[in-house]
Amino acid sequence: MVPRSPQDLDADGLATVLGRFTRASIRLPAAEKHSFTTLSVLHTLAHLGPMRLTALKVTEQITQPAITQLVQRLERDGLVERRADPEDRRAVLVQVTPAGAGIIRTRHQERVRRFAELAETLTPDERHAIGAALPALARMAALMEAES
């Protein structure tokens, strides 16, 4: 058996393909158009649960004034709501509303539908290769999430 090393992976190719894939996936047609930052905040809150503005600012990598304005707009649009932090009544938590979670759910369903369509155009070997790569890609994603 040939020894394996990190050089066995074309990291540049992976970054390029995942970048293209991410951009195309974000831009998939949607019934409701939202900015990347809006979708990212909704996704973060839907998957991580209620957060303080300061924590949300860090995960989204935007300034305090920018996250404050975005949350105000999302609250006005009924996509998030603020509530008192039960551990510190002086602090406020932002949480996604059912309407906000619905946007994330709908976009996921759209993505699944589109990926299934695209998979139909691939060869069986290509579909198998993608399926075989999913556990490793999921592990890499988990490692990246743990770093942030």
Could you explain how this protein is built, in words?
This protein is mainly α and 148 residues long. Strands 1-3-2 form a three-stranded antiparallel sheet. A hairpin with a 2-residue loop joins strand 2 and strand 3. 66% of the residues lie in helices and 11% in strands.
| Percent range for β-strand residues | 5-15%
Oligomer: single chain
Residue-averaged pLDDT, rounded? 90
What Rg, in angstroms, do the CA atoms define? 19 Å
Residue stretches low in confidence (pLDDT < 50, at least 5 long) are none
| Helix/strand class | mainly alpha
So what's the overall shape? Answer: globular
Spatial ordering of strands, largest sheet: 1-3-2
Which features would summarize this protein structure in a list?
three-stranded antiparallel sheet; 6 helices
